[in-house]
Amino acid sequence: MYRSFSFLSYLLCLSFFSLIHNTGAWENNTYEYIVIGSGPGGGPVAANLARAGHSVLLLEAGDDQTQNVNVSLWYNFNLAGNDPATRWDFFVKHSDDPERESRYLRMTWRNKDGSFYVGTDPPAGAEQLGIYYPRAGTLGGCAMHNGCLTMNPNDADWDDIAKMTGDSSWTAENMRKYLINLERVHYLPNGTEGHGYTGWLDMTMLDSGLETNPDSKLFLQQAALASGASVDDLPELTMRDMNGDQPNRDQLTGIFGGVSHIAPNQNRSSPGYYVRNTVNENKYPLTLQLDTLATKIIFSNDTTKPKAIGVEFLQGKSMYSADPRFNASEKGTPGRAFASKEVIISGGAFNSPQLLKLSGIGPAEELKKFNIPVVVDLPGVGHRLADNYEAGILSLASRAIAGASEIFPVFLKTSVAKIRDIYMWCGSFSFEGFWPGFPESYGPSQYECAIVHMNPRSQAGAVTLRSADPRDVPDVNLNFFKTGESQDLQAILEAVKWVRGFVSKVGGGLGPFKEKHPCPYPKGNCTDEEQKKYIKEQAYSHHASSTCAIGADGDEMAVLDSKFRVRGVKGLRVVDASSFPAVPGGFPVLPTMMLSEKATEEILNELEEAGGVVRH
Ligand SMILES: Cc1cc2nc3c(=O)[nH]c(=O)nc-3n(C[C@H](O)[C@H](O)[C@H](O)COP(=O)(O)OP(=O)(O)OC[C@H]3O[C@@H](n4cnc5c(N)ncnc54)[C@H](O)[C@@H]3O)c2cc1C
Ligand SMILES: *[C@@H]1O[C@H](CO)[C@@H](O)[C@H](O)[C@H]1NC(C)=O
Ligand SMILES: *[C@@H]1O[C@H](CO)[C@@H](O)[C@H](O)[C@H]1NC(C)=O
Ligand SMILES: *[C@@H]1O[C@H](CO)[C@@H](O)[C@H](O)[C@H]1NC(C)=O
Ligand SMILES: *[C@@H]1O[C@H](CO)[C@@H](O)[C@H](O)[C@H]1NC(C)=O
Ligand SMILES: *[C@@H]1O[C@H](CO)[C@@H](O)[C@H](O)[C@H]1NC(C)=O
Ligand SMILES: *[C@@H]1O[C@H](CO)[C@@H](O)[C@H](O)[C@H]1NC(C)=O
Ligand SMILES: *[C@@H]1O[C@H](CO)[C@@H](O)[C@H](O)[C@H]1NC(C)=O
């Protein structure tokens, strides 16, 4: 039945192209493509396919908050991160060890009255929820409340995918064209080689404060000296392009300019706006269906392999229980939509594997536990979860630090790494991870370098089902430091010491600094072991990836092939942060958008090839 249905759609497509073009939808809710999730993975591919003339249904669980000033003015990102209009609350584990978990200083609990308690001394009767992990369930996904920092990963991260899969389209050299496609760079003279100036993503550079804030300059000068540069190099270093194609890129360390997905007028630029603008232009066959939680992929059984032909969903506000406004009594309206060509899953690193499993694609043992009929036994789904380890060295200066929003990024290469392995950004702020109500302000004398460990050596995390209810959240255990612990902790400790060293030399009445952590004042003489213990137990993260990983043929844990196709079925891809075989660089949002551009090209290429077959 479904086969003839899609054949009919095909005929309709041939005969009534202009009709389809105008209405966007066919009879019985059929589109060429259905994309699930409008974040950095799903948003661009959905808009791009529609702009290429294909009918696309984009399902998004959240609603449109593009006009909410928490979201649209980028510097409100902490307000946006806490805004119930956009946020999805996940509570995760960092390990299997309850003792270690209980020492996490920002452990979150649910009080009897429903409110949150954050800390290590909960009131009687409070229920331990876990470590808060922020996500955004809204048009545009987490790029609507993130910090907007962008980083094209080290070249090796891309080249490794090419090597692993034998697909040379993944080389860093080739991936640059997707960066060029999407970006609209404002921080370089228009036309400068290696970048794009006409794409949909505005890219500006944050103000380091070098010329505008004497206090920022004092920190910059010491950081420059500590990284082996001279203070005379600062005008150049603070504008240095971290997304450039400099030769020997992976070995470049020291101060860079903070490239961000922000428009020159300070408005956030992101996939959410790209999708919204594509819909508003009213000339592309893009149907955006908000407040719609995809609950299951529909497969046809009449081909040699199961083929994804549609999606079941629930329509209604706040259908997913991570939404703080969730109400279990509001059941929503079930519905279905069909795809004549493909279904693309882009729900993010927690939701894409959950949806695959709910649809019968995942480890057979786990699916059977929940009576989910197995479509494909794919043991890798939900595994290989990894994340950048993050830590910060936070201190209080002896007086207020002028300004507030100026930051500068720094790359380091530690003694345990072959290429640069630490990315950090420094400024007068406090960032100690996430909990309901984050962050904590320590006043105008606070100073932090937030440290991101790139290329974590452990990839042992997992997203597993808690139930077969699509409204339920899955269990997430990041399993930090399962392998490579001593090297990864060593790397972070070296970064902490590097920061401590340069900050202690800052003059202008700002010192002496009182460190909050990892070595709290007045001790000032913590052992390496004490600091590593603190870093290990208090590390946090928000760049989850790799739960539906691309992998080589023959790798039984590979979920996708190098073209994002889910192994063992037809017509189904996963395009989002879960597709990466390993954590990309220090910041995932830009590489995820680059994946989305790449997926667009793969899909259109395949269509052309298939079209060729039909024409013969
Ligand atoms: C607070 C915070 C700050 C961050 N800061 C930065 C930063 O400065 N720089 C950086 O590079 N990265 C940052 N990140 C990470 C970055 O935003 C994410 O890695 C990126 O958004 C991942 O994109 P994605 O498309 O994989 O998933 P997501 O962004 O999570 O998007 C998934 C979308 O799918 C929707 N969805 C999920 N399941 C379903 C379903 N079943 N049906 C329908 N819709 C569904 C969700 O509502 C969501 O809109 C930050 C993340 C957070 C949370
Ligand atoms: C569309 O749905 C209607 C009602 O469910 C059904 O009668 C009709 O056959 C369907 N059309 C196609 C092309 O499947
Ligand atoms: C920038 O954001 C503000 C606040 O939401 C909005 O009013 C304005 O229209 C936006 N500007 C542009 C150019 O999109
Ligand atoms: C912005 O978010 C905060 C929570 O962080 C919320 O209290 C406030 O109402 C939101 N503002 C708007 C304009 O929605
Ligand atoms: C760069 O120049 C092109 C061609 O004139 C123009 O279309 C584009 O808008 C410019 N981009 C920026 C960021 O100014
Ligand atoms: C395909 O088979 C599965 C498992 O037997 C079944 O649940 C599903 O409904 C079938 N799909 C269709 C479209 O008939
Ligand atoms: C939840 O939804 C039910 C049914 O609509 C409603 O009666 C109830 O008041 C809602 N609960 C809350 C807390 O809003
Ligand atoms: C570390 O510092 C504390 C507080 O200043 C001091 O009491 C202690 O003796 C010092 N320990 C060592 C080993 O130097």
TrEMBL record:
<keyword id="KW-0732">Signal</keyword>
<feature type="signal peptide">
    <location>
        <begin position="1"/>
        <end position="25"/>
    </location>
</feature>
<dbReference type="GO" id="GO:0016614">
    <property type="term" value="F:oxidoreductase activity, acting on CH-OH group of donors"/>
</dbReference>
<feature type="domain" description="Glucose-methanol-choline oxidoreductase N-terminal">
    <location>
        <begin position="348"/>
        <end position="362"/>
    </location>
</feature>
<dbReference type="InterPro" id="IPR036188">
    <property type="entry name" value="FAD/NAD-bd_sf"/>
</dbReference>
<protein>
    <submittedName>
        <fullName>GMC oxidoreductase</fullName>
    </submittedName>
</protein>
<dbReference type="Pfam" id="PF00732">
    <property type="entry name" value="GMC_oxred_N"/>
</dbReference>
<comment type="similarity">
    <text>Belongs to the GMC oxidoreductase family.</text>
</comment>
<dbReference type="Pfam" id="PF05199">
    <property type="entry name" value="GMC_oxred_C"/>
</dbReference>
<dbReference type="InterPro" id="IPR000172">
    <property type="entry name" value="GMC_OxRdtase_N"/>
</dbReference>
<dbReference type="GO" id="GO:0050660">
    <property type="term" value="F:flavin adenine dinucleotide binding"/>
</dbReference>
<dbReference type="InterPro" id="IPR007867">
    <property type="entry name" value="GMC_OxRtase_C"/>
</dbReference>
<dbReference type="InterPro" id="IPR012132">
    <property type="entry name" value="GMC_OxRdtase"/>
</dbReference>
